[in-house]
Amino acid sequence: MGLIESDEGPSAGFTLKNLRNHPAPKFVIAGSLTFLVDIGSLKLLHGVAGVPLAPATVIAFAVAFIVNFATSRQWTFAATARDGHPRRQLARYVTLIAINLCSTVLIVVGFASLGVNYLAAKTASAGVLATGNFFAYRHWVFAAPPVL
Which of the four, 57, 88, 90, 100, has the lowest number of CB atoms within 10 Å? Predict the structure, then answer.
């Protein structure tokens, strides 16, 4: 059966209900919330409180980390995540986030040193990392455990 065909008729495979239950739209919503928390925290820490950019970026990233793990596990990838082992998922998530954190700091600080606004650099960083994260979350971090 293709994306458009199913047992229920020629177009029942692609419906609004199926789209609502697919993790991609949920990932976009959860990611948008996470990004708002991240960039808002960065603006408050660096732009308002005067915390230096690199530590402010790390702290904002850590706050967003908590929001993203919770929304990803409990909502975005709930169908597969609930069957998995939370500790293993957290370990995989932390590994991926460590890679993302290093990438984010390098991108934000690197672009800022070239004269790019740090919030624009943060936005670019988030955009670059989001696509890879969706596939890593879906197929590695929150993937259903193998059936034996």
Answer: 88
